[in-house]
Amino acid sequence: MGELHGIGAAVDQALCVGNGICVALAPEAFRLDQNMKAFVVDPEGESETSLIAAAEACPTQAIYLSVDGEALYP
Ligand code: SF4
């Protein structure tokens, strides 16, 4: 999960309910697929602050963040 260098992000699509909050808060990092499930595009394209805001705002805690392979969120 995530990348070994820099900031990494992952979405558990089984938990995602497709409300798009993560896409609104960190549009470079997340998109919705045709099934209304979020997926990771480019976590490096967003600030750590925006990524954390998106992860915190996810109602189902479906977003996981890491820095250099270490858990950042949750
Ligand atoms: S905020 Fe959470 S539930 Fe909403 S689209 Fe993103 S990952 Fe899915």
Each distinct ligand:
iron/sulfur cluster
Query: Structural class of the secondary structure composition?
Result: alpha+beta
Which percent range describes the beta-strand content? Answer: 25-35%
Parts with pLDDT < 50 across at least 5 consecutive residues: none
- Helicity range of the residues? 10-25%
Radius of gyration computed on alpha carbons? 11 Å
Give the overall average pLDDT: 94
Shape: globular
Spell out the helices and strands N to C.
EHEEHEE
How would you describe what is shown here?
It is a single chain. The chain has 2 helices and 5 strands. With 74 residues, it is α+β, with helices and mostly antiparallel strands. The protein has one domain (7-73): Alpha-Beta Plaits (2-Layer Sandwich), CATH 3.30.70.20. It has a 3-stranded antiparallel sheet with strand order 1-4-5. The two termini are 13 Å apart. The chain binds iron/sulfur cluster. Iron/sulfur cluster is lined by residues 11, 16-22, 38, 58-60, 62-63. Iron/sulfur cluster (SF4) binds at residues 11, 16-22, 38, 58-60, 62-63.
